[in-house]
Write the C-alpha coordinates for this entry.
Amino acid sequence: MKEIVPCEREGPRLAESFHHQLHTYALAASAAGVSFLALTEPSAAEIIYTRTHHVIGNRSSYRLDLNHDGATDLTIQNKYHHTCTSGGTCRTWESLAAKLARTNQVVYNIYGAVAMKQGIRIGPSAPFHGGTERMVTYGNSSTPSGSWINVSNRYLGIKFKIEGKTHYGWARLNVQIQSPLTITATLTGYAYETVHNKTIIAGKTKGPDMAAAPSDTAPGNLGRLALGRK
Protein backbone atom coordinates (compact mmCIF):
# COMPACT_ATOMS: atom_id res chain seq x y z
CA MET A 1 0.00 0.00 0.00
CA LYS A 2 1.25 3.43 -0.93
CA GLU A 3 2.03 5.55 2.10
CA ILE A 4 0.13 8.85 2.33
CA VAL A 5 2.26 11.70 3.65
CA PRO A 6 0.22 14.47 5.29
CA CYS A 7 0.77 17.91 3.73
CA GLU A 8 2.10 20.60 6.07
CA ARG A 9 -0.40 23.46 6.55
CA GLU A 10 0.83 26.88 5.34
CA GLY A 11 -1.53 29.02 7.47
CA PRO A 12 0.73 29.49 10.54
CA ARG A 13 3.73 30.34 8.35
CA LEU A 14 1.77 32.93 6.37
CA ALA A 15 0.41 34.50 9.56
CA GLU A 16 3.90 34.59 11.06
CA SER A 17 5.29 36.21 7.88
CA PHE A 18 2.50 38.82 7.83
CA HIS A 19 3.04 39.81 11.45
CA HIS A 20 6.79 40.05 10.86
CA GLN A 21 6.26 42.44 7.90
CA LEU A 22 3.69 44.49 9.79
CA HIS A 23 6.07 44.78 12.74
CA THR A 24 8.87 45.90 10.38
CA TYR A 25 6.75 48.70 8.88
CA ALA A 26 5.47 49.74 12.29
CA LEU A 27 9.09 50.23 13.34
CA ALA A 28 9.66 52.27 10.18
CA ALA A 29 6.70 54.45 11.03
CA SER A 30 8.00 54.94 14.56
CA ALA A 31 11.42 55.95 13.21
CA ALA A 32 9.69 58.53 11.01
CA GLY A 33 7.92 60.00 14.04
CA VAL A 34 4.54 58.46 13.23
CA SER A 35 2.51 56.68 15.87
CA PHE A 36 1.29 53.14 15.23
CA LEU A 37 -2.30 54.32 15.50
CA ALA A 38 -1.69 56.62 12.55
CA LEU A 39 -1.43 53.52 10.34
CA THR A 40 -5.19 53.21 10.33
CA GLU A 41 -6.37 56.61 11.58
CA PRO A 42 -4.70 59.49 9.68
CA SER A 43 -5.66 62.94 10.97
CA ALA A 44 -8.09 65.06 8.94
CA ALA A 45 -8.50 68.80 8.60
CA GLU A 46 -11.72 70.42 9.72
CA ILE A 47 -13.36 73.75 8.96
CA ILE A 48 -15.45 75.33 11.70
CA TYR A 49 -18.20 77.47 10.20
CA THR A 50 -20.55 79.86 12.00
CA ARG A 51 -23.65 81.23 10.32
CA THR A 52 -24.78 84.63 11.58
CA HIS A 53 -26.63 87.81 10.60
CA HIS A 54 -25.32 90.99 12.14
CA VAL A 55 -25.91 94.46 10.69
CA ILE A 56 -23.14 97.02 11.21
CA GLY A 57 -24.65 100.42 10.48
CA ASN A 58 -23.18 103.93 10.67
CA ARG A 59 -21.22 104.61 13.88
CA SER A 60 -21.34 101.01 15.05
CA SER A 61 -18.90 98.10 15.19
CA TYR A 62 -18.75 94.34 15.64
CA ARG A 63 -16.07 92.33 17.44
CA LEU A 64 -15.43 89.06 15.64
CA ASP A 65 -14.18 86.01 17.56
CA LEU A 66 -13.46 83.48 14.81
CA ASN A 67 -12.78 80.43 16.99
CA HIS A 68 -15.07 81.29 19.93
CA ASP A 69 -12.29 81.37 22.52
CA GLY A 70 -13.50 84.63 24.08
CA ALA A 71 -10.82 86.82 22.45
CA THR A 72 -11.59 89.33 19.69
CA ASP A 73 -9.65 88.53 16.51
CA LEU A 74 -10.74 91.63 14.58
CA THR A 75 -13.26 94.42 14.81
CA ILE A 76 -15.34 95.56 11.85
CA GLN A 77 -15.89 99.24 12.57
CA ASN A 78 -18.12 101.76 10.81
CA LYS A 79 -16.93 105.20 11.90
CA TYR A 80 -18.04 108.79 11.38
CA HIS A 81 -15.34 111.42 10.82
CA HIS A 82 -15.51 115.22 10.79
CA THR A 83 -12.49 117.51 10.55
CA CYS A 84 -12.00 121.22 9.90
CA THR A 85 -8.91 123.15 8.88
CA SER A 86 -7.77 126.41 10.43
CA GLY A 87 -9.18 128.16 7.39
CA GLY A 88 -12.66 126.90 8.17
CA THR A 89 -12.87 124.19 5.50
CA CYS A 90 -14.59 121.13 6.89
CA ARG A 91 -14.75 117.56 5.65
CA THR A 92 -17.10 114.79 6.73
CA TRP A 93 -16.91 111.11 5.82
CA GLU A 94 -17.94 107.62 6.90
CA SER A 95 -15.46 104.72 6.77
CA LEU A 96 -15.79 100.96 7.11
CA ALA A 97 -12.59 99.21 8.18
CA ALA A 98 -11.20 95.98 9.62
CA LYS A 99 -9.22 96.65 12.81
CA LEU A 100 -6.99 93.65 13.54
CA ALA A 101 -6.22 92.54 17.08
CA ARG A 102 -2.64 91.76 18.11
CA THR A 103 -0.58 90.42 15.17
CA ASN A 104 -3.60 89.25 13.16
CA GLN A 105 -3.82 90.31 9.51
CA VAL A 106 -6.14 90.42 6.48
CA VAL A 107 -5.58 89.96 2.74
CA TYR A 108 -4.97 93.43 1.27
CA ASN A 109 -3.92 95.43 -1.79
CA ILE A 110 -3.39 99.14 -2.56
CA TYR A 111 -7.07 99.84 -1.85
CA GLY A 112 -7.01 98.23 1.61
CA ALA A 113 -8.75 95.02 2.69
CA VAL A 114 -9.67 92.92 -0.37
CA ALA A 115 -13.31 91.98 -1.07
CA MET A 116 -12.48 88.40 -2.11
CA LYS A 117 -14.73 86.32 -4.34
CA GLN A 118 -15.84 82.82 -3.39
CA GLY A 119 -13.33 80.10 -4.26
CA ILE A 120 -10.14 82.11 -3.75
CA ARG A 121 -7.51 80.43 -1.58
CA ILE A 122 -6.51 82.09 1.69
CA GLY A 123 -3.12 80.87 2.89
CA PRO A 124 0.60 81.53 3.29
CA SER A 125 1.09 82.84 -0.26
CA ALA A 126 -1.54 85.61 0.03
CA PRO A 127 -0.49 89.23 0.75
CA PHE A 128 -1.45 90.10 4.34
CA HIS A 129 -1.30 93.26 6.43
CA GLY A 130 -2.27 94.09 9.98
CA GLY A 131 -3.32 97.18 11.90
CA THR A 132 -6.46 98.86 10.53
CA GLU A 133 -7.29 98.14 6.89
CA ARG A 134 -9.85 100.25 5.03
CA MET A 135 -12.76 98.47 3.36
CA VAL A 136 -14.66 101.47 1.96
CA THR A 137 -14.71 105.25 2.53
CA TYR A 138 -17.55 107.60 1.59
CA GLY A 139 -17.09 111.35 1.88
CA ASN A 140 -19.55 114.23 1.58
CA SER A 141 -17.59 115.73 -1.31
CA SER A 142 -16.33 112.60 -3.05
CA THR A 143 -17.43 109.29 -4.50
CA PRO A 144 -16.98 106.07 -2.46
CA SER A 145 -13.57 104.41 -2.64
CA GLY A 146 -12.27 100.97 -1.64
CA SER A 147 -12.91 97.33 -2.58
CA TRP A 148 -16.21 96.96 -0.72
CA ILE A 149 -18.52 99.26 -2.70
CA ASN A 150 -22.01 97.72 -3.06
CA VAL A 151 -20.94 94.08 -2.90
CA SER A 152 -22.73 90.89 -1.86
CA ASN A 153 -21.21 87.67 -0.50
CA ARG A 154 -17.61 88.87 -0.54
CA TYR A 155 -14.96 87.53 1.80
CA LEU A 156 -12.44 89.07 4.15
CA GLY A 157 -9.40 86.76 4.21
CA ILE A 158 -7.95 86.50 7.71
CA LYS A 159 -4.72 85.23 9.25
CA PHE A 160 -4.85 84.88 13.03
CA LYS A 161 -3.26 83.01 15.92
CA ILE A 162 -4.56 80.18 18.10
CA GLU A 163 -2.21 79.36 20.98
CA GLY A 164 0.64 80.98 19.11
CA LYS A 165 0.09 79.08 15.83
CA THR A 166 -1.08 80.61 12.56
CA HIS A 167 -4.55 79.71 11.24
CA TYR A 168 -6.53 81.00 8.26
CA GLY A 169 -10.19 81.96 8.02
CA TRP A 170 -12.72 84.20 6.35
CA ALA A 171 -15.65 86.49 7.13
CA ARG A 172 -18.50 86.92 4.61
CA LEU A 173 -20.15 90.34 4.28
CA ASN A 174 -22.58 92.34 2.20
CA VAL A 175 -21.90 96.10 1.98
CA GLN A 176 -24.26 98.76 0.65
CA ILE A 177 -23.56 102.48 0.10
CA GLN A 178 -26.38 105.04 0.17
CA SER A 179 -26.61 108.80 0.10
CA PRO A 180 -26.15 110.73 2.27
CA LEU A 181 -23.01 109.19 3.85
CA THR A 182 -24.52 105.82 4.73
CA ILE A 183 -22.58 102.57 4.81
CA THR A 184 -24.35 99.38 5.87
CA ALA A 185 -22.36 96.17 6.31
CA THR A 186 -24.00 92.83 7.08
CA LEU A 187 -21.91 89.95 8.42
CA THR A 188 -23.54 86.68 7.30
CA GLY A 189 -20.98 84.05 8.31
CA TYR A 190 -17.39 83.22 9.14
CA ALA A 191 -15.13 80.16 9.28
CA TYR A 192 -11.60 79.02 10.07
CA GLU A 193 -9.36 76.02 9.44
CA THR A 194 -8.52 74.04 12.59
CA VAL A 195 -5.17 72.81 11.23
CA HIS A 196 -2.48 75.46 11.64
CA ASN A 197 -0.80 76.83 8.49
CA LYS A 198 -3.40 75.07 6.30
CA THR A 199 -5.00 77.03 3.45
CA ILE A 200 -8.76 77.63 3.49
CA ILE A 201 -10.95 78.46 0.48
CA ALA A 202 -13.18 81.53 0.70
CA GLY A 203 -16.76 80.37 1.16
CA LYS A 204 -15.91 76.77 2.04
CA THR A 205 -17.87 75.69 5.11
CA LYS A 206 -16.62 72.16 5.66
CA GLY A 207 -13.44 70.18 4.97
CA PRO A 208 -11.16 68.68 4.06
CA ASP A 209 -9.90 71.01 1.34
CA MET A 210 -7.75 68.84 -0.95
CA ALA A 211 -5.89 65.62 -0.15
CA ALA A 212 -2.22 65.47 -1.11
CA ALA A 213 -0.98 62.56 -3.23
CA PRO A 214 0.17 59.87 -0.76
CA SER A 215 3.74 58.56 -0.78
CA ASP A 216 4.86 55.00 -0.02
CA THR A 217 6.02 56.07 3.44
CA ALA A 218 2.83 57.98 4.30
CA PRO A 219 1.08 56.59 7.41
CA GLY A 220 -1.99 55.48 5.48
CA ASN A 221 0.14 53.34 3.15
CA LEU A 222 2.30 51.45 5.65
CA GLY A 223 -0.40 48.86 6.31
CA ARG A 224 -0.82 48.24 2.56
CA LEU A 225 2.93 47.84 2.15
CA ALA A 226 2.93 45.26 4.96
CA LEU A 227 0.40 43.29 2.95
CA GLY A 228 2.64 43.44 -0.11
CA ARG A 229 0.43 45.96 -1.98
CA LYS A 230 1.33 49.27 -3.64
Remarks:
- Residues 171 and 201 are 11 Å apart (CA to CA).
- The chain has two domains: 11-42+219-226, 47-201.
- The first strand starts at residue 47 and ends at 56.
- The radius of gyration is 28 Å.
